[in-house]
Amino acid sequence: MKPKPPSIPMPVQAFRHRRSRKRWPWVVAAGLITLLLIWLVAHAPSESKSQAPVPISTAQVAGPPWQMGNPKGRFTLTLYADLECPFCREYFPQLKRWVGANADVALQWQHQPLAAHEPAASAEARLAECAAETDGHAAFWQAVEWVYAHTRSDGLGLPEGLRYPDLNPAVERCLASERPEALIRAQAEEATKGGVTATPSLRLHDRQTGQAILLQGPIEGDALLSAMDMLAAEDSVTSPTTEMPADVVGDMPR
């Protein structure tokens, strides 16, 4: 039996050379990927700068009229009010609670500053409109509540030197413009043409039947429910939108 020839060890250099020849395509590929990632990162900021800023949600700021409650509810309740009217100031928190307890109603505001309460009434209406123009529906109602909490009413206006806490450059620019004044005047003229002669007054509109009822004065909760029932009973095919007298009385939740 012949002895087995001894194995000859492979030179270390040759082994390393062979391994390096197998790895170089992967090294090149990794380098290309790295360069690609660096290029993408370097170009990302310039692309983002060229994009237009994201617009504010129209669902948040669309208006006026400014609303609270369920915008898809069957009934729309329009409140004609004056921010210097003491009866409006007393009535508003009650009406807000009633709307919050009735999921099928949306409350919307319509300005009707009375001549006897000027110029304070229009100045406060401009503040509410500009707050809403800047920050939407919730900001409008927040401004209304702030005015009612601080005004001396009956045309005396806000205390001297009192500053609205959410006043900012955007609101100030709006106040310096003619936009809010034109809107307030148009709403007041529309209310007068529609037969509104006092504040607060309400117009309840049934979006399903097309019927509406004008309710003068601070209307209590049971009266509003009765008006809703009456409007719901009307035939929208034979009766277009009309105004009907209110002669129902109830109790507003307090």
TrEMBL record:
Transmembrane segment boundaries: none
High-level lineage: Bacteria, Pseudomonadati, Pseudomonadota, Betaproteobacteria, Burkholderiales
Occurrences of domain Thioredoxin-like fold (ranges): 67-211
Organism annotation: Melaminivora suipulveris
Xref: SUPFAM superfamilies: Thioredoxin-like
Protein name, as recorded: Disulfide bond formation protein DsbA
Span list, region Disordered: 235-254
